[in-house]
Amino acid sequence: MAILLEVVGLGPVSRMPSITLDHGLLTALAERWHNKSQCFRFPTGEMTVTLEDVWWILRVPIIGTLIEYNSDAGLIRAACSDLFDVDDIPHDGMTIALHECISDPTLHRGPLYIMSLISGFLLTDKTGTLFPRGLLPLVHGIFSGERYCWGQCILAHLYWDLHLITYHGQKT
After folding, report:
1. How far is the C-alpha of 23 from the C-alpha of 8, rounded, in Å?
2. Torsion of Cα atoms, 77 then 105 then 113 then 76, to 10°
3. H-assigned helices in the chain
4. d(C-alpha 114, C-alpha 132), whole Å
5. Which residues pair with 65 in a beta bridge?
6. Model pLDDT for residues 3-46, shown as the tens digit of each residue
7. 145 Ramachandran zone, left/alpha/beta (phi>0; psi -120 to 50)
């Protein structure tokens, strides 16, 4: 598994220590985010997060195949069949609850580890345990040795989450 993670560019992320979140700091940063200019406003000036920042912090690839959400049911079923030897895995429509999958002894652990790395660290939500079902073909691509542009996807996900928090008033 470690060799595969290195080949697809996720080795540095898999070796990162666990992170303790400072919710006060995150809330303060979210309050300083401005959607129109897409930057943080501080008394000393404006600051934004760039692709280079993502690369320096996470060391993920910024060159490769673009990551896209694929809702094609046929591709999702094919990915499930290849990764887990089943037609489908438990889901609630759009997301897969990883805690339910991990307790299933019939499912392969390798793909579940990649899914938990993506949903719990790279493209996380409030729970960190829900994996977007449309990204199953992406996991299949990882096991085929496909190199993806993780940096762009992570940066877009960050900007989208900041937009949701500030514009729609969602809780952090």
Report:
1. 31
2. 0
3. 2-7, 11-14, 23-31, 51-58, 73-84, 98-102, 109-117, 136-143, 150-167
4. 13
5. 148
6. 888 888 888 888 888 778 788 998 898 899 998 899 999 999 99
7. left
* Full strand arrangement of the beta sheet holding 45-47: 33-34, 39-42, 45-47
Residue type at 134 in one-letter notation: G
**Which of the pair, 154 or 92, is modelled with greater confidence?**
154
How long a stretch of residues is the chain?
172
In this model, does residue 172 exceed pLDDT 90? no
Q: Which one is predicted more confidently, 42 or 166?
A: 42
Q: Where are the domains of the chain?
A: 2-167
The encoded tokens of residue 16 equal: 């990162």
